[in-house]
Amino acid sequence: MKKYVAECIGTMVLVTLGCGTAMLVGCDAANGGGYILTAFAFGLSIVAMAYSIGNISGCHINPAVSLGVLLCGRMTGKDFVYYIIAQCIGALIGAELLVTIFTSGNVVDMTGGLGSNGLAGVHGSSVAGLLVEIVLTFIFVINILGVTSPKFNHGSFGGLIIGLTLVGVHILGIGLTGTSVNPARSFGPAVVAAASGNGVPLECLPVFIVGPLVGAALAAFVYRGLE
């Protein structure tokens, strides 16, 4: 049970810090600094949680990562299911925290939807958005599988390496899809924003669930072939 609670907490922190930063600074093309700040907020969240809960749950805090780990034979099917449930609950809690903070403090949400992912950067193309998420998740998950492989030892730098990789994929992906590479991170803010009456459409949400899962599966397949 402790590892499921850890996954819930970790995902909550990721959504709160990452999406919260995006809400504060905005991620439009005219505000390029917002790209970097948001990218580092997500990446540093991973670093912080990796060194906080990594020894408890492995710090997946992402269903795509859990899928990659499962397909590489490093976790059980039971844990996989409970990890995803815990991650989605954590994402919902994080999004609700952001609603409370921004509403109570009368702070403007620069993204208009709790930092939800969208397809504006690819002109509404679901195909392009899906491809972006597959490629970026592939890069992120194959990095994680390599860093955490029992055959290699990256010492205490594993969390930092993974966090910086997430920064990198965000720098490219923010302007295209907002960068998901994490179905839970997309699910929580999108659902809470829609429920709060912000008018955030949920039609494109499947892109940010299917894309990362496909990218993770490909990463696991390729890594197992290379390892």
Can you describe this structure in just a few lines?
This protein has 227 residues and is mainly α.
Sequence-ordered SSE layout with sheet pairings:
Layout: H1 2-25, H2 32-57, H3 63-71, H4 77-104, H5 126-147, H6 158-177, H7 183-195, H8 207-226
Helix pairs in contact: 1-2, 1-4, 1-7, 2-6, 3-4, 3-5, 3-8, 4-7, 5-6, 5-8, 7-8
How would you describe what is shown here?
With 227 residues, the protein is an all-alpha fold. The longest helix is centred in the middle third of the chain and has 28 residues. The protein is globular. The two termini are 31 Å apart. The model has no long low-confidence stretch (mean pLDDT 93).
Q: With helices defined by DSSP (H or I, 4 residues minimum), what is the helix count?
A: 8
- Secondary-structure element pattern, one letter each: HHHHHHHH
Beta strand count: 0
- Main sheet: strands, sense, barrel: none
Q: Helical residue percent?
A: over 70%
**What oligomeric state do the depicted chains represent?**
single chain
Class inferred from helices and paired strands: mainly alpha
**How far apart lie the N and C ends?**
31 Å
Q: Provide the residue-averaged pLDDT.
A: 93
Q: What key phrases describe this protein's structure?
A:
227 residues; globular
